[in-house]
Amino acid sequence: MTGTAQGEVSIRSEGDIVAARRSVREAVMELGFGLTDVTRVVTAASELARNVHKYGGGGVMRWRRLESGGRRGIELEFIDQGPGIADVELALQQGYSSGKGLGLGLPAARRLMDELEIRTAPGAGTTVTSRKWCPP
Amino acid sequence: MSDRNSISIIIVRKTLMVTVPSDPDDATVSALQDEVLAAMQRVDAKGVVLDIGSVETLDSFFARTVAETASMVALMGGRTVVVGMRPSVAVTATQIGITLGGIETALSVERALDLLDRPVTGRSRR
Amino acid sequence: MGTQFEPRSGGLPGAAASQTSPETQELVRLLIENIKDYAIITLDPRGHVLSWNAAAERLKGWKADEIVGQHFSRFYPPEDLQNGKTEMELKVASQEGRFEDEGWRVRKDGSRFWANVIITALRDSEGRLRGFGKVTRDLTARRESEEKIRRQAQEILEMAAVPVVQVWSGILLVPLIGTLNSQRTQQLMDVLLNKVMETASPVALLDITGVPAIDTQTAQHLIETIAAVRLLGSEVVLTGVRPSIAQTLVHLGIDLSNVSTRSSLSAGLRTAFELLELCVAPRATAGG
Q: Do residues C203 and C172 touch, judged by C-beta distance below 8 A?
């Protein structure tokens, strides 16, 4: 299978959220994910990219192809230097927020992807890494 | 091919027919709300048919805007029917708990118009 | 046994003297140079590239002067390098005489291709390891068509496992048999939603007569499926809710109050007709 193995999209303006979606769509389609899984990953990317823009003060999305034990996958990484998340457990809880806070983005991404890791601290920015594997 | 960021609104049988492009950016989605409400006032439409048949990604921002718009349209005296959601989008939406706030849905624009001609029956059928 | 070669006039595989004439040697050199489908290169005993052919440039992207002297681990993806794959390959080739493998390789531009690779240990008449020959074939196209066939077979299997039947114009029936785990729910949702869209059926009967027991997870899966069908614009009637299922649902505290449910499939069918505003009436008798 040909195609690129990794990529990066800077998220500085609102329009970059779409750019992130399109990059991810291309990448997962190349990997041969089924249409529903493509939709899942792109939706997760949209949520996380919006978080970077809206709450992180801008940042970057990096993606790369994964290969392990014959299975293909994709890894998405969203990095910002924003205020960080004070209560990660709270942010991950299901349900719409009242308008403040992080909304549905993180819980949605967690449900749509296979793996999700968050590295954050108040004042120290946030890195959200998530992975999805192609079913065997 | 329609512009990626243009929302088309036409008026048919006193109803707003809104067609959403395949991958609208956030600004376009927000503009949808403004334009629909402005048109509701201009035309005094009885409702809105929102065609999302081209939409490939429906995230929480889009869903929230649509749900809010429907509530606002209701306050202005109209009903909203969502048409054409793609199966892959529906599966993803239910997985993350997006429900569009109980908005009415229909399989086609034609059925949506028929639906708007009848009184509201509500979702609970026993 | 490795490939033995005599370091006579230029050193060529095979023992017959007639094969070592300058003309034949030239033809062999031209073969290696011009063959299009096989990247044929040689490595020194530690794995650095010694020679390169046109097919190698075509397949891997590097020109000869860019790659000669570099280590052949350049052609491998990062995950293989972490596992020490290249050292292992040379070791096996050196011990067994040859090593064969299929796997991902990396081009100069970073893109990947699926390759069949054979590494052969090249020893002189004293058995000293002089280097390795490496023949690489691009199997990406074959792998893609294999993947495609596998996916199609999978899809056919999945469709068979979740039958969706059109019992009437506008009414789909899904007779669920057996338990409903996460994976099966995914299949169910994909098949049912696509069928709803294709047939534009306003009603789907989800019959659980054949589902032996219901737990919270199964109920959750059913609720998700019903929600998704509704997003498309159709309605679901859950049928086959027999007494034991009804008891379990209430005891588990599962709320299905906004879903149409019926105890039997025939009652569900009657509801479906009502939803479509159809009525079934006896044919008017003739005569009078």
A: yes
